[in-house]
Design brief:
Low-confidence stretches: none
Helix content: 25-40%
Largest sheet: 8 strands, antiparallel
Number of domains: 3
CATH class of the largest domain: Alpha Beta
Strand order of the largest sheet: 13-10-12-11-15-16-14-17
Mean pLDDT: 95
Number of helices: 14
CATH architecture of the largest domain: 2-Layer Sandwich
Distance between the termini: 23 Å
Structural class: alpha+beta
Strand content: 15-25%
Length: 382
């Protein structure tokens, strides 16, 4: 395993094998090997975990620049000292690297208000297979000069180039955060409450929907809306008054607030650790379609109810693949997001990639014409 300590070393460790058409497997700390397509057998293995420095942090400017191998937990701890945050809430956050979070475009409950990596990454340095360092974006929140090629790296699973440095915009942490857990007897009632919240003046940072199987671990086998609110005390108190009109819910502060969102954020790692042959499907849908998708999921299911992303949890990968195929026939866009390595070659991971897949293949050809880097990691399509 090659472990460069500088961007220059990373460039050399990519260019040398690529020059001789040797295949390369690229990773951070491998926290998400179950995610995406198969981890390729390769001639060379490169980890960015040695690139772990904070390069520039300007708390007053709300920007930070870090190397890709910096552990995500260290980044969040540093920002927390200044009451700031990058609210991506990725699963595996305790072990993931910055580069891994960005390359997999990982996000969690607060994407509803703050968006995904594409919304918080303002600049990047990545290294091509030619050994070139490409700098895109900058260290200012608004940067509109030219094409931001760094955006291509977000969600690419390292199939185009190696992310070396990431620049983020950060946001102040709210003065107060409070959570609300609202139980409902039916999915329709939970969706109606979700719609009422979305029509309201106050907009929560997270609105997650748990089906009864997912809520069982929280001691409540009902349809649950988990709502996270932040702001000053007066604003959060107003949230509590207005949400009380929607149902007989429970408010959480402090440790109970933290434990609730830890459970929601880490549901995927927890489930997979308990089910050796388990798999997770992710479906992107409209807010209107979300009810139908959640009804169709047979087991544990969770939705970013304000964003239109649903997650279904299956104890057997074969069942997940069959469900995903039927979902594709219904016109839903989904992927087999997590699955055991031994199944990745035998099941369809991305049954309906959409019309832009050809463009994605052309971009891959531009960056990696001989298909040397992280082959198949993008759900075996690229």
């Amino acid at each position: 395993m090659l472990k460069p300590r500088t961007v220059e070393e990373l460039a050399e460790m990519l260019a040398r094998p690529a020059k001789h058409a040797r295949t390369i497997a690229l990773e951070g700390c491998a926290s998400k090997r179950l995610m995406g397509g198969p981890t390729p057998q390769a001639d060379e293995y490169v980890t960015t975990s040695g690139l772990n420095r904070v390069l520039q942090y300007e708390p007053h400017d709300l920007t930070i620049s870090v190397e890709a191998g910096l552990p995500w937990r260290e980044l969040t701890a540093l920002l927390a000292k200044h009451r700031q945050m990058i609210p991506l809430d990725p699963p595996y956050g305790a072990v993931a690297t910055v580069g891994g979070v960005v390359a997999a475009s990982s996000s969690g409950p607060r994407r509803r208000l703050y968006g995904t990596a594409r919304d918080v990454v303002i600049g990047m340095t990545f290294v091509t297979l030619e050994g070139k360092q490409v700098r895109s974006g900058g260290m200012v929140v608004k940067n509109v000069a030219g094409l931001d090629m760094g955006k291509l790296m977000i969600g690419s699973f390292g199939t185009l180039a190696a992310i070396a440095v990431v620049n983020f915009k950060v946001v102040p942490a709210p003065e107060v955060e409070r959570s609300f857990l609202l139980p409902f007897d039916s999915l329709a009632a939970a969706i109606a409450a979700r719609d009422s919240i979305l029509r309201g003046v106050l907009q929560p940072s997270a609105i997650d929907l748990l089906n009864p199987a997912a809520g069982a671990a929280l001691g409540n086998r009902a349809w649950l809306l988990a709502v996270c609110c932040g702001g000053n005390t007066a604003a959060v108190d107003r949230y509590e008054r207005e949400l009380a009109l929607l149902g007989n819910g429970v408010a959480f502060d402090g440790e109970r607030h933290d434990s609730l969102w830890h459970y929601v954020r880490e549901l995927t790692p927890t489930f997979l650790s308990q089910h050796q042959h388990g798999a997770v499907v992710r479906v992107s849908c409209t807010l209107k379609e979300l009810q139908s998708v959640m009804e169709f999921l047979p087991g544990v299911a969770l939705a970013r109810a304000g964003s239109g992303v649903c997650y279904g949890y299956f104890e057997r990968t074969q069942d997940a693949a069959l469900w995903l195929s039927s979902a594709a026939r219904r016109g839903w866009k989904g992927v087999l997001e997590f699955s055991p390595e031994e199944w990745k070659q035998d099941v369809e991971m991305w049954p309906a990639p959409g019309g832009d897949i050809e463009l994605m293949h052309r971009v891959k050809k531009l960056f990696d014409p001989e298909n040397l880097l992280n082959r198949g990691r993008l759900y075996r399509r690229i």
